[in-house]
Amino acid sequence: MLDLTLLKNFVIIARAGSISVAAMQIGRTQSALSTQMQRLEEQVGHALLQRTGAGVRVTAAGEKLLTHANALLSRHDEILADMNGAMLQGTVSLGCPEDYSIAFLPELLRGFCATHPKVDLRMVCAPTIELRPLLQRRQIDLALVSRSEPDHQEVLRKENFVWVADRPKPDLLAKDVLPLALSAPATLDHRAACDAMENASRRYRIAFASNSLSGLIAIARSGHAISVLTKTAVPPDLHVVTGGMPPLPTIGIALEFSGPQTASAARALGDHIRAVLPGLSP
């Protein structure tokens, strides 16, 4: 007989990519969790986890078991919910870029958590380019992601990229080579900023590059560089720069799932986000 507790902990380890991180999330010691995984490997007759320098990686047999475990645990949660008067239960892992988490998550999650108090919600804040691989590996259940096509049918909301600085007309605009603070090169805001500058034949240099929203905001506050943020993520003490800068594009926010067979709690959160996100005030 497969032990559901072992399966649940295996899923948490697979999502975390680390036994030590999973141990902190579960509230067990790392050695106890390692022993549990050894027991599970004995039950299924295969090695499930391979240690790496950065943590653990799920083996081919582990990937196969992960698919079955997610389906079985989802069905388990549905049975409990049905027997307990339709009270939704389970664990949901939601991914979200940092700027969206600041702008939208408090309002989004307030209503969901009040309606479904028995759902355990876990958050992963990362850029879209890092969230999609996590979805593919089923390390998170669903994620808010950015799309370059704002009119795509899956887009729930449109957002504008804006230039931001410590003042409406920063002294930096007078520089021959404009210093910019941008996210990592593969992100939408980085590409949008560089394309806009090149299309306008405006010389620039990347003075600061980081996927940390707080880092970009700190550089903009210092007056050292002009940054790019979504308009809803601009803090009150920073200013949107319009004059002297080329226009930036509009992007779309969409919701993506790890696969067609998602747990009832994840589906419920997705339905809630689809219903609430489009109507939130900017």
Low-confidence region ranges? none
How many E-type strands? 11
Mean pLDDT, rounded to whole units?
88
End-to-end span in angstroms?
Answer: 51 Å
User: Cα-atom Rg, whole angstroms?
Assistant: 22 Å
Strand content: 15-25%
Task: Indicate the structural class.
Answer: alpha/beta
Oligomer: single chain
List keywords for this structure.
alpha/beta; Arc Repressor Mutant, subunit A; 2 domains; nine-stranded mixed sheet; 23% strand
Map the helices and strands.
Blueprint: H1 4-16, H2 19-26, H3 30-44, E1 49-52, E2 55-58, H4 60-83, E3 90-96, H5 98-103, H6 105-115, E4 119-125, H7 128-136, E5 142-147, E6 155-165, E7 178-182, H8 188-199, E8 204-209, H9 213-222, E9 226-230, E10 239-241, E11 250-257, H10 264-276
Parallel strand pairs: 3-4, 3-5, 7-8, 7-9
Antiparallel strand pairs: 1-2, 5-11, 6-9, 6-10, 6-11
Helix pairs in contact: 1-2, 1-3, 1-4, 2-3
